[in-house]
Amino acid sequence: MHSIGRFLTYYLPQNAGDIARKFIKDPQLLSFIDAECFIVSTVNALQTPMINASMVLCDRHFGGINYPVGGVGEIAKSLAKGLVDKGSKILYKANVKNIILESGKAVGVKLADGREFYSKTVISNATRWDTFGKLVKVEELPEEEKNFQRIYIKAPSFLSIHMGVKASVLPPDTDCHHFILEDDWSRLEMPYGSIFLSIPTVLDSSLAPDGHHILHIFTTSSIEDWKGLSQKDYEEKKELVADEIIRRLENKLFAGLKGSVVFKEVGTPKTHRRFLARNDGTYGPMPRKIPKGLLGMPFNTTAIDGLYCVGDSCFPGQGVIAVAFSGIMCAHRVAADLGK
User: By residue range, what is the domain housing residue 267?
Assistant: First the structure.
């Protein structure tokens, strides 16, 4: 436990890029480390806290890839089942419109249909921009949130393509996960510059009909790129951008990919905003400039009594592992505050 504490204390204010450049001089390897950090944080290694980088590097390169049978949705189902088994109740299609405050304390939530629920604590897993920009109605933003917004801006969202394709288009030794960056490292952080691809049916064929595979393709995209379009122009642009991404995958990986498509759905940052209720569809916070590691990242408590935040807007930041860690920390904090 002491060694973990020393590790966190030492690396908390440091970034992965600074440490990498102390020991590595090869520009190609440094660019690769930038790409590894970008995969989790949407910024290069110089802007990625060392703690976050260590999480993603261990996850991606130590012990191989683990994938849940039945797809990633099974994780959410298992978590929901565990909550219900422990006596919790989950309300679906329950859109929270605002957090109820009484004498400056968070005491419950009000839903879009008018129902109100009261509790000893309120935990928001919305982004901090949504929590303090939409859900909490206060005359002045708490100083902690002003500081957060001074240090961090909203990371871009994604363009996502979900496709069903004929299995014959994929070579038999195809891997599950791919990261495509054609020729030029300088395009790494540009919109649509790099492409993420996952093919879950390589590991679990039950997810698709016989003779088919599922492809999930995504690339960074900003909501500003999709504003001011008519519905017709919006749909046409989705198809144009998706076709260009598919063409690039054809050139690098799977010849004939476009002709093998039997199903395709394209989502934009506006899709992420609508269905995930995330401000501008953002993937999470990213630093305005080179940060001091994670020193500027807020923890789970807030300036409002009884209100806690959890997720990628809290320490230790973006990525599945980091967000899970944030949830564990928040659970311990709430339990301690309730005297449990």
Answer: 156-276
Gap between the Cα atoms of 243 and 232, Å rounded: 17
The verdict on residue 269 lying in a domain is: yes
Domain with residue 192: its CATH number is 3.30.519
Q: Report yes or no on whether pTM surpasses 0.70.
A: yes
**pLDDT exceeds cutoff 60 at 1:** no
Tokens 């990633």 -> residue: 72
Q: What is the pLDDT of residue 7?
A: 62
Q: Does 118 map to a domain?
A: no
CA–CA separation, 71 vs 63, rounded Å? Answer: 20
Can you read off the two tokens belonging to residue 68? 């849940």
d(C-alpha 243, C-alpha 266), whole Å: 10
CA dihedral 74, 85, 277, 160 (to 10 degrees): 0
- Euclidean distance between CA atoms 149 and 282, whole angstroms: 14
Is residue 176, in this structure, part of any structural domain at all? Answer: yes
In-domain check, residue 32: no
Domain count, the chain: 1
pLDDT band at 13 (very low <50, low <70, confident <90, very high): confident
Euclidean distance between CA atoms 321 and 78, whole angstroms: 17
SS (H, E, C) the chain: CHHHHHHHHHHCCCEHHHHHHHHCCCHHHHHHHHHHHHHHHCCCHHHCEHHHHHHHHHHHHCCCCCCCCCCCHHHHHHHHHHHHHCCCCCCCCCCEEEEEEECCEEEEEEECCCCEEECCCEEECCCHHHHHHHHCCCCCCCHHHHHHHHHEEECCEEEEEEEEEEHHHCCCCCCCEEEECCCCHHHCCCCCCCEEEECHHHCCHHHCCCCEEEEEEEEEECHHHHCCCCHHHHHHHHHHHHHHHHHHHHHHCCCCCHHHEEEEEEECHHHHHHHHCCHHHCCCEEECCCCCCCCCCCCCECCCECEEECCCCCCCCCCHHHHHHHHHHHHHHHHHHCCC
| Ramachandran category for residue 64: left, alpha or beta (phi over 0 → left; psi -120 to 50 → alpha) | left
